[in-house]
Design brief:
With about 1000 residues, this protein is of the alpha+beta class. The chain has six domains: about 350 residues, 3-Layer(aba) Sandwich (Kinesin), CATH 3.40.850; about 80 residues, no CATH class; about 140 residues, Tumour Suppressor Smad4, CATH 2.60.200.20; about 130 residues, no CATH class; about 130 residues, Immunoglobulin-like, CATH 2.60.40; about 80 residues, no CATH class. The protein has 29 helices and 45 strands. The chain binds adenosine-5'-triphosphate. Keywords: ATP-binding, Coiled coil, Membrane, Microtubule, Mitochondrion, Motor protein, Nucleotide-binding, Transport.
Length: about 1000
């Protein structure tokens, strides 16, 4: 018997984080009862309203207790207990009834998913509280004399890069991770996933800690970005008892607690527009989840649609949770800040969609015998199919996943047949294992789970730390900080990757980029702890408090230590802790310290500086790692940071940006990547490096290789600002201007001209066009001018297919023709630009603004000469030093001298204006001269106007000639003291 049930959705808003506070973020979320309101900080859109099953206000109105627990100061604050009472207890009740349950947290990185699901320190999240309560209730049942037996099994896995990693059994790591298979009775499962029997909360806590530690080690060794991983904690709760008929019956519930990867949208991760389609690769699981939800919503609304569970690892494993037999709850974690408006809106929309999904829930309660019989029958069927060697018409029992086997080619059918054969063998094995498990007694299961290496007792380890000097790790994900601890007891502790040759295994075993077999050594003498280099690795990278370690150094409490490219630790000395007032640094602070010592010293005052600092903290270590990977895998690529002022990019409204220059050191090609594009590429580089470390072939085709850019990729050669002030006075301008690249280095010259003209494009020569006072003479008038881009001179010779692009005001960009390979391309380009009736904003733009002109081209690879060198050798030869070569020289000091170009134009315009005014003065002098000669005291204003605004010299002459004949000037009237006549009012006394 199954019943339909809607997915329940909760939304939770967290306090401002440090980053948001520093940026003076404003609160844009309101909660009123079940309604959540999101206000658009730009005011452009109406506030968005959403209604969910639960709304949790955890933004403010709390007080921190001595234990660190955040408790309500006002009743509307939702603390961890409140969330657990609503959500966790509901899941628990369902588990007792024998329903499968799923709880997943969705939201952008740092929105508070882990806070709700796992929790931090004393603020325990749903998973620990759930597990704790489960065992409390089991004990209560047992002591109440319940005849049933209770079994709890625990598993923990991570999906990273579509691969499944067993967090309880990292040693099982195989190529490509655990395989996800589908079983007709058991559904999708990760083949070989370790499931352990647990019989106390402490047991689960230890396992969770072990799993998180394994996750941290793997993430650090592989430079993995943990926010891109999905973690699934699985708990299987089984109650066994005898039913009325005396049969042994199992009532079971599978509970999935899912902490999803950060939900950043493709646009904001820079995944759009890159040929590598990182968006698809990186968040394949998350975007598939979106598609599955959309399809399930359609289905709930009566549409016939296929639900694409098979498109990703995550959706396969969550199939039951989403569309099958499971009571499902989603927690949407959101930031309260205006700066995250887009992401928050997207999260709330996602949640809004999810609440429409309906699952079919049923109690899992059957006699064990029946379950075993069904599995046996299934196996018989599978064995028969295997013997027949054919492919079934349907690949599995699920209508949603039906594939059209008939339409496949012979080869494809053969491939599928082989895969199916393997799949069926695995299914048979899974059924057999499941049957075995069912037959096992609980005692046997417990014994099995507790053989092998003992799981460290998290509590005992914490105690030992309190009295022993130790190192603990820093990670960009606060959840993973402090997970790795190395105790430093008296004696010597070698740090390094394992060294098979010498047979010496370092006691602090590190893996990954740039870690030497013997990297460093800690020497503990009494209360003193020293760090030293190893003689065998003089080049090993060791940084202490931001500075390279040069000699044996005595460490102090809270010192920061970096080994290789990504192992960052804090040294803690409990005996010194009391005398230290400063708290230990965070990951961000320790990384900023390293950046500063690499030459990146940014101010701390402005908002822009803060954003730049944050970006650098994210990018710099990644660049260092990317360069190390490039050297190790010999990818012939070198990366460096560039700080690019927005003006140089020609993007209106944007700020200074951290970008990354990718240089192919072999072919002499350079590409500029946005930070987001680099970070996405970095994720793929890590994937490649992992394959490389596993000894796999990394000869990937270019379209998959994150270290390449296709040869036809366009790059900006240089740019300049073309000031339009002269046009505001209708004066022409002809100039040769400096073209500069993003670092402000001159890369050539551009010859440009600006010509005032009529709306039809007729050029207006100086004399007849000049405008003295643009405010009065141009406003409301039509205005047109021509931009001529004649040619560029002295460009770098690696470019071909060169063209110029520019944008005037808000118009669509204009583009010249493309010139094939040339260092001096002639564009001979002319563009008429016109305004119908100039308004104040347009006039302001003309008088003070500029058109940004950019030159683009494609790069031609350099011909390789002589011996082939490795990346390392080329980098060394070209003098790019390690560590400090990631772009400190690219601080915005050498950027384009905006002022220079601007003044050049202003001076030019001023000169011309002066010329025109002098000309007018000369004409007026002539008027005076003629009037004097003809003894005229007064000249008609009309004549003067004609002279001042004459369109050509002929008109001036003509007007002057009228002066002597000027009959109505009334020369003497004013002199006689008589009131001037009507006509004489329009005269000027000379
Ligand atoms: N309700 C809350 N109260 C107080 N602090 C919170 C709350 N939610 C989150 N935080 C803090 O915000 C930070 C980010 O939270 P958390 O690690 O839970 O985010 P996340 O969404 O899981 O991020 P990621 O995707 O990186 O795993 C943490 O330092 C955490 O302590």
């Amino acid at each position: 018997m199954s019943e339909e049930e809607s997915v329940k959705v909760a939304v939770r808003v967290r306090p401002f984080n440090k980053r948001e506070r520093e940026r003076n973020a404003t609160l844009i979320v309101e909660m009123k009862g079940p309604t959540t309101v999101l206000n658009d900080p730009s005011g452009e859109n109406e506030p968005k309203r959403f209604t969910f099953d639960y709304s949790y206000w955890s933004h403010d109105s709390f007080k921190e207790e001595a234990s660190g627990y955040l408790a309500p100061a006002k009743p509307h604050y939702a603390d961890q207990n409140m969330v657990f009472k609503d959500v966790g207890l509901g899941v628990l009740a369902n588990a007792w009834e024998g329903y499968n349950c799923s709880l997943f947290a969705y939201g952008q990185t740092g929105a508070g998913k882990s806070w709700s699901i796992v929790g931090y320190g004393p603020n325990k999240g749903i998973v620990p509280l759930f597990c704790d309560k489960l065992f409390v209730q089991i004990e209560e049942k047992k002591s109440g004399g319940e005849a049933a037996s209770f079994e709890v099994e625990f598993s923990m896995l991570e999906i990273y890069n579509e691969q499944v990693r067993d967090l309880l059994n990292p040693a099982s790591k195989r190529k490509g991770g655990l395989k996800v298979r589908q079983h007709p009775k058991l559904g999708f499962y990760a083949d070989g996933l370790k499931t352990v029997a647990v019989n106390s909360y402490q047991d689960i806590e230890n396992r969770m800690e072990e799993g998180t530690k394994n996750r941290t080690v793997a993430a650090t060794n592989m430079n993995a970005t943990s926010s891109r991983a999905h973690t699934i904690v699985g708990i299987k709760f089984t109650q066994k008892y005898q039913n009325a008929a005396g049969q042994e019956t199992a009532k079971s519930s599978v509970i999935n607690l899912v902490d999803l990867a950060g939900s950043e949208r493709a646009e904001s991760t820079g995944a759009t527009g890159d040929r590598l389609k990182e968006g698809a690769a990186i968040n394949q699981s998350l975007s598939s989840l979106g598609n599955v939800i959309a399809a399930l919503v359609d289905k709930a609304n009566g549409k016939q649609v296929r639900v694409p569970y098979r498109d990703s690892t995550l959706t396969k494993l969550l199939k039951n949770a989403l569309g099958g037999n499971s009571k499902t709850i989603m927690i949407a974690a959101i930031s309260p800040a205006d700066i995250n408006y887009d992401e928050t809106l997207s999260t709330l929309r996602y949640a809004d969609r999810a609440k429409q999904i309906k699952t079919k829930v049923a109690v899992n309660e059957d006699p064990t015998e029946k379950l075993i019989r069904e599995l046996q029958e299934e196996n018989e069927k599978l064995k028969k199919l295997l013997e027949s060697g054919g492919i079934p018409e349907k690949l599995d029992d699920d209508d949603d996943d039906e594939e059209d086997v008939k339409s496949l080619s012979k080869d494809e059918r053969e491939r599928i047949r082989k895969e199916l054969e393997e799949e069926m063998q695995a299914r048979i094995l899974a059924s057999e294992q499941e049957m075995e498990e069912m037959k096992k007694t609980w005692e046997e299961k417990m014994q099995q789970s507790h053989t092998g290496p003992t799981v460290p007792d998290a509590g005992a380890a914490r105690k030992e730390k309190e009295s022993t000097p130790h190192l603990y790790n820093l990670n960009i994900d606060p959840q993973l900080t402090g997970m790795i601890v190395h105790l430093l007891k008296p004696g010597q502790h070698l740090v390094g990757s394992s060294n098979e040759e010498s047979g010496e295994t370092p006691s602090i075993l590190l893996k990954g980029l740039n870690i030497q077999p013997q990297h460093a050594a800690f020497i503990v003498e009494g209360d003193k702890v020293f760090l030293d280099r190893c003689q065998s690795s003089p080049d090993a990278k060791i940084i202490v408090n931001g500075q390279p370690l040069t000699e044996k150094d005595e460490l102090e409490h809270n010192d920061r230590i970096m080994f290789g490219a990504n192992h960052l630790y804090i040294f803690a000395h409990p005996k010194q802790a009391g005398s230290q007032k400063q708290p230990a640094m965070t990951y961000e602070e320790a990384q900023a310290e390293i950046n500063q010592n690499s030459g990146f010293v940014l101010g701390k005052g402005s908002l822009d500086d803060l954003i730049l600092n944050d970006d650098l903290v994210e990018v710099m270590p990644a660049i260092e790692q990317a360069n190390d990977m490039s050297e190790e895998m010999d990818k012939k690529v070198k990366f460096e940071v560039v700080i690019v002022p927005a003006k140089v990019l020609g993007i209106v409204g944007s700020k200074t940006e951290v970008m990354v220059k990718m240089r192919n050191v072999d072919l002499g090609l350079e590409y500029l990547w946005t930070k987001a594009k680099f970070m996405n590429r970095k994720y793929l580089m890590d994937e490649m490096y992992e394959s490389f470390s596993d000894g796999e072939d990394i000869n990937w085709p270019d379209e998959r290789d994150p270290f390449t850019e296709p040869p036809d990729h366009e790059e900006m050669i240089g740019g300049l600002h073309l000031y339009l002030q002269s046009i505001g006075y209708k004066i022409e301008a002809k100039e040769q201007l400096d073209l500069t690249d993003i670092k402000g280095i001159e890369v050539g010259k551009l010859n440009v001209e600006l010509w005032p003209c009529t709306q039809t494009g007729k050029v207006l020569r100086d004399e007849d066009a000049f405008v003295d006072d643009p405010e009065t003479d141009l406003k409301g008038q039509p205005l047109a001018f021509k931009v001529k881009i004649l040619n560029a001179r002295g460009l770098p010779d690696r470019f071909t297919d060169i063209y110029c692009k520019f944008r005037v005001y808000t118009m669509e960009p204009f583009q010249t023709q493309t010139i094939k390979k040339a260092i001096n391309p002639d564009f001979k380009f002319e563009q008429l630009v016109s305004f119908n009736a100039i308004d104040s904003q347009e006039l302001d733009y003309l008088l003070n603004g500029s058109a940004y002109v950019q030159l683009f081209g494609k790069q031609v690879p350099k011909k390789r000469e002589g011996k082939k060198l490795t990346t390392k050798q080329i980098v060394k030869k070209s003098g790019m030093l390690k560590g400090k070569d990631i772009g400190a020289e690219n601080m915005p000091k050498a950027t384009v001298d905006e002022g220079k170009v601007g003044y050049q134009f202003q001076i030019l315009t001023l000169k011309k204006r002066l010329e025109r005014l002098e000309k007018k003065m000369a004409q007026m002098n002539k008027v005076v001269e003629v009037a004097e000669k003809s003894s005229k005291m007064r000249v008609k204003t009309e004549t003067i106007k004609t002279v001042l605004h004459a369109k050509n010299p002929d008109a001036v002459e003509k007007a002057i000639k009228t002066i002597p004949k000027d009959k109505g000037a009334g020369d003497n009237e004013g002199v006689n003291g008589q009131p001037p006549s009507q006509e004489s009012k329009a005269c000027v006394l000379l």
